[in-house]
Design brief:
Blueprint (H helix, E strand, L loop, with lengths): L1 H33 L8 H4 L5 E6 L7 E7 L4 E8 L4 E11 L5 E5 L5 E7 L2 E5 L15 E4 L2
Antiparallel strand pairs: 1-2, 1-8, 2-3, 3-4, 4-5, 5-6, 6-7, 7-8
Length: about 150
């Protein structure tokens, strides 16, 4: 009887240890998916990001901002913003830089401001000023599509 209880206790400890290890593994896997891939592949070194991207971004006081952003391999950009139904066009050029993970860029505006984008396959997704993903009902409106 004593041997049976000892075996049950040992099995319980072993099972408990396996459960903890498994949940730790799952938590680690979840965070790895949210950050840069550990094999060294990033948007910066794996995607054909040097291109022209277009889309109509939301606007607080107009029908939208038709945006064309060209990213060049020398880390410079050309930006054209056309405010629809307002007859206002803004064009500028400057530089941009990658974040340390190689997943998003910051476009340094001529007025001292900046734009942030997550670089995905064939698209740029606008980020908020803190570099966080824009969520909510208009989230899909904050995408610039790569042009052929």
């Amino acid at each position: 009887m004593r041997n049976s209880l000892l075996c049950l206790a040992a099995a319980g400890l072993l099972f408990s240890a396996c459960q903890q290890n498994n949940s730790t593994h799952k938590a680690t896997a979840g965070t790895a998916a949210d950050s840069a891939v550990s094999d060294g592949h990033t948007a910066q070194n794996s995607l054909d990001w040097a291109s022209t991207y277009e889309g109509v971004l939301p606007c607080a006081d107009c029908e939208g901002i038709k945006t064309t952003l060209t990213l060049k391999e020398d880390l410079t950009y050309l930006l054209r913003e056309e405010y629809l139904k307002k007859d206002v066009v803004n064009e500028e050029q400057g530089s941009f830089n990658w974040n340390k993970e190689g997943t998003s860029i910051t476009v340094n505006r001529q007025d001292g401001g900046f734009l942030k984008f997550f670089v995905g396959e064939n698209q740029l997704r606008s980020l908020d000023q803190a570099g966080k993903e824009i969520t909510g009902p208009l989230a899909s409106s904050y995408i610039l599509k790569q042009q052929p």
